[in-house]
Design a protein that fits this description.
The protein is an alpha+beta fold. Helix content is about 35%, strand content about 20%. The protein contains 8 helices and 7 strands, in the order βααβαααααβαββββ. Strands 2-1-5-4 form a 4-stranded antiparallel sheet. The radius of gyration is 18 Å and the shape is globular. The termini are far apart.
């Protein structure tokens, strides 16, 4: 039986963040089974596509302070039954793969940390978890899954990327401005790790000004595990 701590339940948010992962960076961050991870994204044919990290209720001030989105406070996790719908599970495996952690662990973690807040505000029934996952997946598919193919078609190897030029390309393709999102790079590898897009609660794009840069002037983009080939943008 699930008991909600209603007095602590985080509902005072004003922003949604859609976070998308660059899979090759996830593989590069794995200290063990690195080659297995690269093989997996090739088998799934997602080595040139973005995948989901999550859809997060948050506040604009959290973004500006570089704070993590708040957690939904509950006493017991909901553990969704992803095996109930094989097609649904298959879609999540391709668009929301747990490259660093187990698939089910990642999905359950994201739902309990962020999805329950989304469901409680919009639908109240927190057990209809599929609504949250469908919304997240649809947002990725609609605009972002093939984003890198649009920016750098047929790319292979490693690219040394100008932060300024990359943002210019991205802004042009999506018809957005710098304030609509933030780029995040992995400090250890220098690779682009994820992009976080900002929305109002009605899912129109939101500008959050003066967001701190979390990538250097030049960063790396890995399209394969072949680190010997380096191109420049």
């Amino acid at each position: 039986h699930l008991i909600l701590k209603n007095d602590q339940f985080y509902e005072d948010y004003d922003t949604y963040i859609l976070s998308i992962f660059w899979p090759s960076t996830s593989c590069s961050k794995k200290e063990e089974r690195n080659s297995e991870c690269f093989q997996l994204i090739k088998e799934k044919k997602i080595n040139n596509y973005f995948t989901l990290h999550g859809l997060w209720p948050s506040k604009a001030e959290n973004v500006l302070k570089k704070n993590s989105p708040p957690e939904c406070n509950i006493e017991k996790y909901i553990v969704p039954n992803f095996d109930k719908d094989k097609n649904f599970k298959g879609k999540l495996e391709n668009l929301w793969p747990g490259l660093i952690s187990n698939n089910t662990y990642l999905w359950t973690h994201e739902y309990n940390k962020h999805g329950i807040c989304y469901m409680k505000r919009n639908y109240r029934n927190i057990y209809d978890y599929k609504i949250y996952f469908d919304k997240s997946v649809n947002m990725l598919e609609k605009e972002y899954k093939d984003l890198m193919e649009k920016l750098l078609p047929d790319s292979k190897g490693v690219y040394n990327v100008s932060f300024k030029k990359f943002r210019s390309k991205l802004n042009s393709k999506l018809r957005i401005s710098n304030s609509h999102y933030e780029l995040i790079c992995d400090n250890k590898t220098g690779l682009l790790s994820e992009i976080r897009f900002f929305y109002y609660l009605n899912f129109t794009r939101r500008k959050i000004y003066n967001v701190s840069k979390r990538c250097p002037r030049f960063f790396l983009l890995n399209f394969t595990d072949d680190t010997k080939k380096v191109a420049f943008l």
